[in-house]
Amino acid sequence: MVFKIETIAIITFTDNGEKIADKLKSEFDYTGKNDKVKFDKTKLGKDKLDKNEFDKDKSYLSLNATFKVDIFNDRKNNSKMMGDIFSKYDYIIFVSAVGIAVRFISPHVSDKLKDPGVVVVDDGENFAISLLSGHLGGANALSKKVASVIGAIPVVTTATDVNKKTSIDLIMKRLNARLILEEEKLVNTYKLSSKDIRYIIKLINSALISKKKRVYIINDGYKIDTRGMIVIGKGEVEEIIQDKAYENYLVVVSNKQSVHKVDSSGFKNTLHVYPRDVVVGIGCRRDTSITDLKKAISEILVSNDLAFESIGLFTSIDIKSDEKAIIELSEEIGVGFRTYSKEELQKFDGLFRGSDFVREKVGVSSVSGASCFAASDKGMICDPTKFKGIVLALGICDTIERKDL
Questions:
Q1: What's the per-residue H, E or C state across the chain?
Q2: Is the domain of 303 the same as that of 203?
């Protein structure tokens, strides 16, 4: 499984603030450590820990993550380390006045797609305020979790939330999704610019809170918040096209090619949301061309009715970590490339029909099958399939970490 330990920095200024920070750390931190740091650069950036260090049960968390928490005591209002903290932590919690938090973070705020989620808790434990990056940064969800821990009132001000509606950026974050808008001004690429993504988010979220617009959604079985959207089946599209009373928008959520093939001519805009949950296990000859690899992947996806846009991860054995074609293709479409050692893959080697020749060369008989299985927490889609000099397997994983944002 691809697994991420998310990091929280708690910044305090008073004795009571330290007590609140300790309470939050005891709830969130699952590393078994409780080290406080005082703006120590050596403590920063250790945000990728081994999953085996932790209990696998994460059900006690309202956020879908496991956390490592560091407490920073700043009695002298010394904000010199704020840039390091801002860039290296997924979330920041200030136990302070809102004004102090604003002054600390203001020089470093740059992009809603990349900024960490920032929450402010007052010294009296009355409020947990979502200050920055409420949706993609996760501050809204974190503020609610923090509030439940300390008995405070969560304060969330994003328009979709106060109107009790979902948002496209929340769906994007939940599904690690790629967004493709059917509009001439946006080119259908695998790696949209930050400007394009912000445009899409604003377009759909504005439609959600407008009384003159309607947002319909075709959701292919994903567990997402659809409040404010009208859930329909693919067969109902034609009927909606005839409705001229509203400015209608359509959102299609699926990793299947067939679901995205829909008549969208009657809608103001159609947004295709591709959850990046498809794992592609790869075994190939040394120096395979990127053209051959892309062709083989396209063929296996078509035969399994999966969209190329929904690839979230490539996997293989560690001796392939420098395979040029896999590296170049992963960079081209903005997905990760994860490799496993021979010893890790041997645990799954007997699950798939493989090759004695390959076993003699690398120690396992099915590189594509074993590596795909190792990363797929929702099971396999198809067993290893042979192409010329290439073997591919497909699986599903819903905990893949984004690479491009």
A1: CCCCEEEEEEEECCHHHHHHHHHHHHHHECCCCCCEECCCHHHCCCCCCCHHHCCCCCCCCCCCCEEEEEEEECCCCCCCCHHHHHHHCCEEEEECCHHHHHHHHCCCCCCCCCCCEEEEECCCCCEEEEEECCCCCCHHHHHHHHHHHHCCEEECCCHHHHCCCCCHHHHHHHHCEEEEECCCCCCCCCCCCHHHHHHHHHHHHHHHHCCCEEEEEEECCCCCCCCCCEECCHHHHHHHHCCCCCEEEEEEECCCHHHHCCCCCCCCEEEEEEECCEEEEEEECCCCCHHHHHHHHHHHHHHCCCCHHHEEEEEEEHHHCCCHHHHHHHHHHCCEEEEECHHHHHCCHHHCCCCHHHHHHHCCCCHHHHHHHHHCCCCEEEEEEEECCEEEEEEECCCCCCCCC
A2: no
258 and 218 within one domain: yes
Q: Is residue 402 part of a domain?
A: no
* pLDDT top residue among 298 and 28: 298
Exposed (0-12), middle (13-18) or buried (19+): which is 172, by Cβ within 10 Å?
Answer: buried
Written as six digits, the tokens of 323 are 């395979």
Phi, psi of 3 (to 5 degrees): -135, 140
Q: Are 273 and 253 in contact (CB under 8 A)?
A: yes
User: Could you say which of 216, 245, 275 is where a domain stops?
Assistant: 275
Q: Determine the Cα–Cα distance for residues 355 and 360; give it in Å rounded to an integer.
A: 9
Angle subtended at Cα 304 by Cα 302 and Cα 308, rounded to the nearest 5 degrees? 50
Q: How far is CA 233 from CA 216, 221, 240, 268, in A?
A: 10, 11, 11, 18
CATH number at residue 291: 3.30.420.180
pLDDT at 37: 42
Hey, how many other C-beta atoms are within 10 angstroms of the C-beta on 149?
A: 18
Domain that holds residue 190: 168-275
In this prediction, residue 45 carries a pLDDT of 39
Beta strands 390-396; 278-284: pairing state: antiparallel
Confidence class of residue 357 from pLDDT cuts 50, 70 and 90?
confident
Q: How far is CA 237 from the centre of its chain?
A: 29
Q: Which residue has the tokens 């969330």?
A: 156
pLDDT category at 82 given cuts 50, 70, 90 is confident
pLDDT bin (cut points 50, 70, 90) of residue 394 is: very high
